[in-house]
Amino acid sequence: MTLPKFILGDNTDFPEAIYIIHTEFPRFIINLENDEVEWFEDFDQEDQAELELEIENLITQASAFYDREVERYND
Fold first, then answer.
1. How many Å apart are CA 62 and CA 24, to the nearest integer?
2. At the N or C end, where does the chain have fewer CB atoms within 10 A?
């Protein structure tokens, strides 16, 4: 199965939360309500340094994906 890079998710238990799921390495979920990130990967010190460089870019991409999806729903 081929998955998209980002998936939009919600949950009625958390009605204010908007989740973006990143399906590629490093896999994570970001809650756009508060920018909290939950990682599905375990990182060692070497990975941590690389991740810090990439995290801002990934969050920017996730936010852009959400904006694009909302715009498509409104059309």
1. 12
2. N
